[in-house]
TrEMBL record:
Organism field: Deinococcus maricopensis (strain DSM 21211 / LMG 22137 / NRRL B-23946 / LB-34)
Pfam families named among the record's database cross-references: S1 (PF00575)
Gene3D superfamilies associated with the record: Nucleic acid-binding proteins (2.40.50.140)
Gene Ontology CC annotation, any one: ribonucleoprotein complex
Annotated stretches, region: Disordered: 77-127
SMART domains listed in its UniProt record: S1
Family of the protein in this entry: Belongs to the bacterial ribosomal protein bS1 family.
Protein name: RNA binding S1 domain protein
Amino acid sequence: MQLESGAVATGRVTRVTDFGAFIQFENGETGLVHISQIAHSFVRSVSEHLQEGENVEVKVLGRDERGRLDLSIKELQDEPEEIPRPRAIGRQSPQFENKLRSFMRDAKERTTGGERRGSGGKKGGRR
């Protein structure tokens, strides 16, 4: 029995790596669940989600150009209703904004203050 795209099967985790986990099926075939296919949320470490020897249900996404199985766990999970968004940064205090404005003005004056102005408009060397 060969696993086809769209099939759902249970396999055993045989190896966990930084980039994903290898799953072996009863028919002897092995496929990869890439780290991006483990969960809908950010996966920092595959080993936090999967352990060697564990049985997992996966969906076959297809095969790569070399015939290797591409697998997904997250395709079998309900997608979260709301994707967590980064917290908004609150407005800074007026004192901070005033200090920042003053710093920027002083920095601009320091960097443009060293330029020569009013040199007669002539550039470069001698006559």
